[in-house]
Batch of 2 targets.
Target 1
Amino acid sequence: MDDMERKLTKPKLDDRMMSAASFVNRGDVVADVGTDHGYLPIYLILSGIIPFAVASDIREGPLGRARKNARKYGVDQKMKFELSDGLAFLEDGCPVDDIIICGMGGETIISIIEASDYPKKNGVRLILQPMTKAFELREYLYSGGFEIMDEMLSESGGKIYSCMLTRYTGKSRSVSFAAKMLGEKNIENRSNLFERYALSIRDRIRKQVRGMEKGGGSSAELKERLKEIEEIT
Ligand SMILES: C[S@@+](CC[C@H](N)C(=O)[O-])C[C@H]1O[C@@H](n2cnc3c(N)ncnc32)[C@H](O)[C@@H]1O
């Protein structure tokens, strides 16, 4: 690729990563935690959405990939690379507006948020896209004083994922099982992927109820929860 081509092209993001990109405010400084290939911050810089990004990863291999890709696309001068577990690098005076944590399990995302006070700073927004355990992540956010400002569904590799835009308010909320399972904003937004998302969750719970009944356990509580989901689907 010559210099001209390099400047004109940008990495193609799949819909999952695009959902995270769409939550970034123009002009924000972004930290992409667990960046791996680095495509998300590279895309945001090349699209003129952000001026600067910090790309971090816990492993040298992925961070090296991000560095190499940033050089390839000519944006390495607009990025900083941090070898770091979670948000530890933010403690050393590296101010950012948006923290993106995408493509990890919900439990890992929770442990990363929990280990730092940075997400609680005024003005800081978290863009979170769990590959698993979205219920547990929403439960953690609601009970921990984070507001889920919006959610967006996307499909990648035949699966539907939800990306959450959140910020700390200090006010915890208790919400319904359905809101934690499906996402209050997803229920409100009713995007074209919502029906499939809700039906797959409903079927998963139905299977759990059947399993419990077969095993002779009490399924009454789970059946109540299933009813909540069925009323929405
Ligand atoms: C599956 S990749 C996701 C890459 C990219 N964010 C995406 O959504 O496509 C997960 C990345 O997170 C990194 N990772 C896992 N735990 C981490 C942690 N505690 N702190 C920083 N990075 C972490 C891994 O090394 C890996 O590169």
Target 2
Amino acid sequence: MGYLLDSLLRYGSDQSCPYCGSRSSRPLERKYLVTRLFRCRECDLQYRHPKANAADSLDFYQDDYVQEDGITTELPDATRLRFLVDTGFGEKNVDHYATLFGRMFPDLARGEVRIIDYGCSWGYQGHQFRKHGFQYAGLEVSRRRAAFGREQLGLDIVTSEAELRGGADVFFSSHVIEHLPDPGRMITMGMDLLRPGGYFVAECPNGSEVRRRREPRLTRKAWGMVHPNLISGEFLAGAMADKTFLLTSTPFHDLTAVFDAWGGIGSEVGDLTGSNLLIIAKKS
Ligand SMILES: [Zn+2]
């Protein structure tokens, strides 16, 4: 069924917050008459209504999801893959994260650091992390993209969460949480899959209050059919309130220096005006 027709039919559906279940929320924006962005008064999650549901979402990501950036959902042929490798994967380059993950564990060799990449598509990041020497396991719900990463790139990519092995050093997700019907599940699962001292690292479009005020047209574009959540620093700070975390936004310039300045002790909120939000939370 089409997104707008489905939204129209479900206009009167449950408006409770998909994170905390609160029924106290207020509408912030409206698109196409029948879709609205709500903000939960309890936990600050900004979510689309009608809400995404898990079964439709799983179905959508099998084959219908298309991101027109030439990499996220497009399986490369050999020539294209060669090009991506030679040019460093463009916007999907993870060299700065590789440097950061090395810095997080000064007592471990890179080959001893195990990364879980949650929502890894066909493995364009996994391929880079492995080249940087890390142990890597990815999760991708699209069977087609997961199979490509396994078969063409030789990566360890599973399609169900139950297959992920715990005790990881880093739980990494890049542009995933904004797609999920239940963002809290990813946070809980990510923390559960880490060993004590490990880090939860998530990057996503930035819907923080300061950015919404500064770039209303851009943040308005950042929620809709594909992104049922507009994640903000306010929400993440609340969701991670019982942990020590660092919140910041792009451009990171020297991410390692930012990480060093934080030191993993206490929580710190940096500049939240950039286009992408980054949270790093430490498992105690
Ligand atoms: Zn809530």
